[in-house]
Design goal:
The complex is a heterodimer of chains A (137) and B (157). Chain A is an all-alpha fold. Chain A has one domain. Chain A has six helices and no strands. With 157 residues, chain B is mostly helical. Chain B has a domain at 91-157. Chain B has helices at 3-6, 12-32, 41-44, 58-83, 96-113, 119-126, 130-152. In chain B, helix 6 (119-126) runs antiparallel to helix 7. The longest helix of chain B has 26 residues, at 58-83. Chain B is globular. Classes of the chains: A mainly alpha (137), B mainly alpha (157). The interface between A and B is large, with 116 and 121 residues.
């Protein structure tokens, strides 16, 4: 990947991390408050983020043949439905217990929410166990 | 029930935060054509430590650089938000055991599912991918049940 493209990746990640912080999602208490039906704000976060991305994903490939700094638009990798849904079930258990999902876990390092490193460490080990013993091939 | 009860902390910061997140995911696509959730990084980073073919697949090795950079961006963006813009950030009081065990289960689940709140929730749903939409319904409802159970038994929530 060209350095200019990697710079765009960094900027994109930066907007993502700023948005997570702006939406207070780097605080697990806010996520748990949503999951406990005390504050429905996270539906607004998801709705706004997905809504904007939906427009861009649908529109841009129709008006441009290629992205600005790469040869082609890529697709999301495929995964068997059974694995997708079983994994989602497992993920929901962990998310409901901790209030931390992967994006905020990583962003918390920059936000200075240090105890969330416990969750990020757990995620890295969990991802290792999945790859080591339950990878697709 | 009125709006103020549904959103006791207000609505604007949630909407603006969501739009910023969407802008990041959108810019990644417009500039590089990539679709980026946050969780693949949890697997690709292991390719630096193991030659195991279950990790060192072509797609994991070829995507690991940009996924590192994306994660660094997430960290930088959050840092700028708190340090430069003074966004509110309270250090969490959720119990370490909840964070470790919850994180472990989350790491396993998101990689088995090939996506998390951003991969399925934002990218997959924006593509109207049926499996992603189903995955979001599953992890959201499971998390709601588990969080209620934790609260019921006296955990931090």
């Amino acid at each position: 990947m060209r350095p200019i493209a990697l710079l765009q990746v960094f900027i994109a990640g930066g907007l993502f991390g700023l948005g997570l912080t702006y939406a207070t999602m780097v605080q697990p208490e806010v996520v748990l408050s949503f999951l406990n039906f005390n504050d429905f704000g996270l539906l607004l976060v998801l709705g706004c983020a997905t809504g904007l991305t939906f427009v861009v994903y649908q529109l841009i490939p129709r008006i441009r043949k290629a992205p600005l700094f790469a040869a082609k638009f890529s697709a999301r990798p495929a995964n068997a439905r059974s694995r997708t849904l079983l994994g989602a079930l497992v993920f929901g258990i962990g998310w409901g217990l901790s209030g931390v999902c992967p994006g905020p876990a990583i962003a918390s390092v920059g936000a200075g929410n240090w105890p969330v490193l416990y969750a990020l460490g757990g995620m890295l080990i969990g991802a290792y166990l999945q790859g080591r013993f339950f990878s697709a091939k | 029930m009125n709006w103020a009860e549904l959103f006791p902390m207000g609505m604007a910061h949630y909407a603006i935060g969501g739009l910023l997140i969407g802008a990041g995911v959108s810019w990644l696509f417009v500039s590089t054509g990539l679709m980026g959730g946050a969780s693949s990084f949890l697997t690709t980073v292991w390719t630096y430590l193991t030659k195991d073919k279950r990790f060192a697949t072509d797609s994991n090795v070829s995507s690991r650089t940009w996924r590192n950079v994306y994660s660094l961006g997430l960290i930088a963006g959050a840092f700028i938000g708190v340090q430069l813009f003074g966004l509110p950030m309270n250090v969490t009081e959720v119990a370490p055991w909840q964070l470790v065990i919850g994180g472990l289960i989350t790491g396993f689940g998101v990689r088995l599912s090939s996506g998390c709140t951003s991969g399925h929730g934002i990218c997959g749903m924006a593509l109207l991918d049926l499996d992603s939409i189903l995955a979001v319904l599953v992890f959201l409802s499971t998390a709601i049940v588990v969080a209620h159970l934790v609260t019921m038994f006296g955990g931090v929530a």
